[in-house]
């Protein structure tokens, strides 16, 4: 998982990219705490006050999500002056096992 753009909630241009991922649908989500909990075929790396984004498809082994302030799901305004831990959950049918997996996680301090 990688992040590009500003970590300012007012800027509205924080872009997350997860790769490699399947071409199946997935969800970017973020929470308060850092953890390492077995989850599907990977680990869930965040907990507490988990907020999920909209469902996005993986395309070309990459999933993208932009916090552009266009609506509530694409805004980080309510998280200014906190640190959020972001991760991507995706269906992994070909991977077998639990049939879903997660990306690595990234911790981002959200500025006003």
- Note the overall shape: globular
Strand portion, in percent? over 45%
Individual helix count: 0
Helix content: under 10%
Query: What string gives the helices and strands in order?
Result: EEEEEEEEEE
Assembly form of the protein:
single chain
> What is the number of strand segments?
10
Mean pLDDT: 94
Rg (C-alpha, Å): 13 Å
Give the uncertain stretches in residue-range form: none
Largest sheet: 5 strands, antiparallel
Structural class: mainly beta
Distance between the termini: 23 Å
What is the compact description of this entry?
The protein has 112 residues and is mainly β. Helices cover 0% and strands 52% of the residues. A hairpin with a 2-residue loop joins β4 (33-39) and β5.
Architecture overview:
The strands form 3 sheets. Strands 3, 6, 8, 9 and 10 form a 5-stranded antiparallel beta sheet that branches. Strands 1-2-7 form a 3-stranded antiparallel beta sheet, with no helix packed on it. The model has no long low-confidence stretch (mean pLDDT 94). Strand 8 and strand 9 form a beta hairpin. It has 112 residues and is an all-beta fold.
Give the topology.
Blueprint: E1 2-4, E2 14-18, E3 25-31, E4 33-39, E5 42-47, E6 51-57, E7 63-67, E8 82-91, E9 100-102, E10 106-110
Antiparallel strand pairs: 1-2, 2-7, 3-6, 3-8, 4-5, 8-9, 8-10
């Amino acid at each position: 998982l990688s992040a590009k753009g500003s970590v300012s909630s007012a800027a509205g241009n924080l872009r997350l990219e997860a790769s490699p991922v399947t071409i199946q649908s997935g969800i970017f989500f973020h929470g308060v705490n850092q953890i390492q909990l077995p989850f599907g075929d990977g680990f869930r790396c965040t907990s507490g006050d988990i907020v999920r984004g909209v469902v996005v498809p993986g395309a070309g082994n990459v999933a993208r999500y932009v916090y552009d302030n266009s609506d509530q799901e694409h805004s980080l305004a309510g998280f200014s002056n906190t640190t959020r831990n972001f991760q991507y959950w995706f269906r992994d049918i070909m991977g077998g096992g639990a049939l879903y997996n997660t990306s690595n996680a990234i911790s981002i301090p959200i500025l006003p």
